[in-house]
Amino acid sequence: MKKIYLDYSASTPVDRDVIDAMLPYYRENFGNPSSTHSTGQEAKAVVENSRNIIASCLGANPFEIIFTGSGTESNNLAIKGFADANKDKGNHIIISSIEHYSVLETALFLKSHGYTITILPVDSMGLIDPDDVKKSITDKTILLSIMHANNEIGTIQPTSEISQITKKHEICFHVDAVQSFGHIPFTVDMLGIDLLSISAHKLYGPKGSGALYIRKESVPFLLPLLHGGGQESGMRSSTHNVPGIVGLSKAAEIAKKKIHLETDHILKLRDKLINKILDTIENTMLNGHPTKRLPGNANISFAGIKSDVMLLSLDMKGIACSSGSACHSSTVEPSHVLQAIRLESDMAESSIRLSIGRDTTEKEIDYIIEILKDTSHRLRRMNKS
């Protein structure tokens, strides 16, 4: 049976050049970067070269990059680390209602420890209104955390416009860029942010490797989550995952070179997929912003068909996709993101996410469209019988 992967927002295959770059650091050059002997110092040099590459991709300084184990850890370190380091200045934190659970749950944890949390609404397309940000600020506000692009519906937020507000009020601005880094061209200055999270496995790098950008002029220090050897300027103790760090930097380097050509290819396929579904399958709806969205994201509701039934039927046909975030794929409740955009419950329960990647072909898109037509018609007939 033909297998087609359409869940690139959940995870990507590791690029072969990334694997080749990582392999030497498992066997030949396996030293601990904290060791003082030459083998350790060779590993340290590799880590610092990787730091330079990530910094270059973000338009940042190398000393502003901290390596972590994931996007989730980066989000936790940014939010908890900043809140704890600045609790003498205030205890109010603002997030949006469509954040990844690693931001939502971290905010709720801080709320249980005396912080005040404001959760901003979004409109029907998933956009934050900068005026809502402005209205929510108090004299106790210290941090705003929003995602650059949503992992479920793909909507891209007006971060540069929002950053003008945070700068005026001297509020730290953290952005979760796990979904957008390597897929949308940007620099940290273009976004106007102070903290930014990225993850390797969303851009054809290995799982278990991430990074956090920290603008030193506005965020001199974060209180660490982990205590130990004092690696990463004392903000992230743990022996460096050298192969993972190399994999992250190599994946970022490749993405930077390919981004324009790759985006054009993926956009063409995404638009064809969305338009064909909406034009040829009745009672379907696109969720998220029609244009301000991630290049590879298509979140579609198929009215009258439960998403879990659709996903199982597609999987039996060899098509791998999802109903939203892989982190909460076991829940039976509608996505909190779809609830936040006020999607009617029957449509929210009928939503699937089809995410396209660099390996997706036009033939695969044609095949998927035909399978979706047949599957939706069959499942609707079954519901009527």
Task: Describe what you observe in this structure.
The chain has 385 residues and is of the alpha/beta class. The protein has two domains: 4-12 and 258-384, Aspartate Aminotransferase, domain 1; 16-254, Type I PLP-dependent aspartate aminotransferase-like (Major domain) (Aspartate Aminotransferase, domain 2), CATH 3.40.640.10. Helix content is 41%, strand content 14%. The protein contains twelve helices and twelve strands. It has helices spanning 16-22, 38-58, 71-85, 101-111, 130-136, 159-168, 188-191, 242-280, 307-316, 336-340, 345-348, 362-384, and strands at residues 4-5, 65-68, 92-96, 116-120, 141-147, 172-176, 195-199, 210-214, 284-287, 297-302, 319-320, 351-355. The chain has a seven-stranded mixed β-sheet, with helices on both faces. The protein has a three-stranded antiparallel β-sheet with strand order 9-10-12. A two-stranded parallel ribbon has the order 1-11. Helix 4 links the parallel strand 3 (92-96) and strand 4. Helix 1 packs antiparallel against helix 8 (242-280), helix 2 (38-58) packs parallel to helix 8 and helix 9 packs across helix 12 (362-384). The protein starts with a strand and ends with a helix.
Order of helices and strands: EHHEHEHEHEHEHEEHEEHEHHEH
Percent of residues in beta strands? 5-15%
User: What are the low-pLDDT stretches, counting only 5+ consecutive residues below 50?
Assistant: none
- Gross geometry: globular
- Based on CA atoms alone, the radius of gyration comes out at 21 Å
User: What is the arithmetic mean of pLDDT?
Assistant: 96
Please identify which CATH superfamily of the largest domain we are dealing with. Answer: Type I PLP-dependent aspartate aminotransferase-like (Major domain)
What's the total helix number?
A: 12
CATH class of the largest domain: Alpha Beta
